[in-house]
Every structure is written in structure tokens, then in C-alpha cells.
Design a protein that fits this description.
The chain has 55 residues and is an alpha+beta fold. The protein has one helix at 25-35; strands at 3-10, 15-21, 39-47. The protein has a three-stranded antiparallel sheet with strand order 2-1-3, with helices on one face. It is globular. The two termini are 17 Å apart.
Length: 55
Amino acid sequence: MALVAVKIVNNSDQTVERLVEEDGEELEYLRKLLRREDLKSVEVVKPSTRKPAAK
């Protein structure tokens, strides 16, 4: 799956940007927190052009 950049704003107006899988469980969980009003916003900023680090 592709990684996307997600901008997350909590209820204290602190902002963080993370890379998460496009259709992954983490993005779905963040959206669930948004529906519960535990977060102010969850916004997919853009598809990431970064490649995962080689193992």
C-alpha cells in the first residue's frame, strides 16, 4: 500500500504530520477519533513520494 501524509490537529491545537498507509488501520483509527471528537481534524495532505527505507 502507498503511504500518504496526514495532518492531525488535536483539541489543544497542536499539529503533527505523519506518514500512514493509505487504506490502513491507523488512518481509519484517526478518523474514528475525529468522529468521537477526540481530534479537531485529520486531513490527508498529499500522496507521499517517499520510498520506504530498505531493510
